[in-house]
Write a structure and sequence with these properties.
Length: 247
């Protein structure tokens, strides 16, 4: 069996297959090789590591099975954009979603505005007029790339203390979950083409398919927040598990 002369901390020899697998995986997860990056060809890796082509092929096949790369006949192997699956009926922390991809997380607040609710807000948040709302716009990053756009309304009648929160450091989602018990939530899911502003914010081409998740939550039948989360369509998927109706 081909092995390296180097040894791991435990003293066991590291196979070349494991070394190649680990090296490529680390470069992908660190962002050094971003989505779309072409992995060196098999013959190049064979020369670099001084091993057989079978060993390289085995490592690349494992990376493809793990969803980290895409192998294209005659073109080579390319880094795939990470795709996350989350449950439709759960409220997820976006930081946890990014952590699940093995990428560093960063949050950025774009705008924060406390204002009187408009008639358009009645559709989104179901608050009466007159009411005061806090409007927030945020970006969440996975590595160096924008991962999700967040546009949110919060009712100050339901959460008066939000008026004193800057959200400069902490995203509004986990802040609300930690402070406001909710007893009901509603999801709406749709696909849209990215307009110019969305495309610029997500670093994608205008017209790219995006997944939009809109959610409203209530506490003791009082509307708390409405959030619109926008993901590039090839980076996120929703799944649901259910059982047959007892009726």
């Amino acid at each position: 069996m081909e092995t390296l002369r180097e040894e791991e901390a435990g003293g066991e020899p590291v196979s070349l297959y494991q070394r190649i697998l680990g090296d490529i995986r680390d470069r992908i997860l660190s962002g050094e090789w971003p989505p779309g990056y072409r992995i060196p060809f098999e013959h190049e890796l064979t020369t670099q590591y001084g091993c057989s082509r079978m060993t390289v092929n085995k490592a690349l096949s494992q990376l493809a099975n793990a969803g980290l790369i895409e192998r294209r006949r005659r073109s080579g192997s390319f880094v795939r954009r990470p795709q996350l699956q989350s449950a439709i009926l759960e409220i997820h922390d976006i930081k946890a979603e990014v952590d699940a991809l093995g990428l560093p997380y960063r949050y950025e607040l774009a705008t924060r505005l406390q204002r009187k609710a408009t008639r358009a807000d009645l559709v989104r948040l179901d608050v009466p007029l007159p009411s005061t709302v806090l409007e927030l716009s945020c970006r969440h990053f996975a590595g160096d790339r924008p991962f999700c756009l967040e546009d949110r309304l919060i009712s100050l009648a339901a959460v008066p203390e939000v008026a004193d929160e800057s959200f400069a450091e902490m995203a509004p989602g986990p802040w609300l979950v930690s402070r406001v018990p909710w007893n009901a939530a509603e999801h709406a899911i749709r696909a849209v083409g990215a307009d110019a502003a969305t495309a610029a914010a997500l670093g994608i081409a205008a017209g790219t398919a995006c997944l939009v998740i809109e959610r409203r939550t209530w506490s003791a039948d009082q509307p708390v927040t409405h959030v619109r989360l926008t993901y590039a369509g090839d980076s996120h998927a929703l799944v649901a598990r259910f059982t047959p109706s007892q009726g």
